[in-house]
Design goal:
This protein is of the alpha/beta class and 214 residues long. It contains eight helices and seven strands. It has two domains: 135 residues, 3-Layer(aba) Sandwich (Rossmann fold), CATH 3.40.50.300; 57 residues, no CATH class.
Length: 214
């Protein structure tokens, strides 16, 4: 939400993957920042394939410019915008091996070119959050979980199992943990905040080269 309110679509583009048939993220679908929206596995795979192609194109651009990442490129050249991919209930996607391999690959290579992921799950398990995902994740936000096993999968410690106050979470970056309080934003308030940023109609979203997105 804060990114929509503080960043322009020219600086940040969003890709939303919602396997609950789009219900959770539907309110954001017409936001100007949103250029990709998937509500089933077929749409998600198409979205990830396009992101893979964008990643390859951006690496080619970085190579021609003689730089190693988007930060260095933006200091020297015309600004390359950032992309954020938000996946709700990632456990549903892990059952699809093709999608699993695609996401694993993107997580390994996309950060340097300004493409980032937020991966959410209500079912932390070794299958949902394997070591490869953890190794390529910069930070973790863990809310209260059922038991110490779930907490260790996310944080490698028991802290998320000990949370008692609603809205509290453990924010972990590197080896440092911090307990934080997350605000509750009702759906009605969220809709009111994003209304000025919504398109009046919903044309087919396209990337910078005119390729239709989901």
């Amino acid at each position: 939400m804060n990114l929509i309110l503080t960043k322009s679509p020219a600086d940040l583009q969003l890709h939303l993957v919602d396997l609950k048939n789009g219900v959770e993220f539907e309110m954001f679908r017409k936001v100007e920042h949103v250029v990709g929206f998937a509500k089933d596995e077929t749409g998600a795979l198409k979205l990830f394939n396009r992101l893979e192609q964008l990643t390859i194109e951006r690496y080619h651009t970085l190579g021609k410019a003689g730089v190693v990442n988007v930060t260095e490129y933006n200091k020297r050249r015309t600004k390359m915008n950032h992309h954020l991919v938000v996946i709700d209930e990632y456990a549903n996607l892990r059952e699809n091996k093709e999608i699993q391999a695609k996401v694993d690959k993107l997580l390994r290579i996309c950060r340097a070119v300004g493409i980032y992921f937020i991966i959410c799950t209500q079912r932390p398990s070794a299958e949902t959050v394997p070591g490869l995902i953890k190794a390529n994740t910069q930070a973790v936000l863990a809310f209260a979980v059922k038991n110490q096993v779930n907490s260790r999968i996310l944080l490698d410690n028991d802290k998320a199992a000990d949370i008692e106050i609603p809205g509290r979470a453990i924010y972990q970056q590197g080896s440092k943990d911090k307990e934080v309080q997350v605000m509750l934003l009702p759906d009605s308030k969220a809709r009111s905040l994003i209304k000025p940023f919504c398109r009046k109609s919903e044309p087919q979203a396209r990337n910078s080269k005119g390729v239709e997105l989901c």
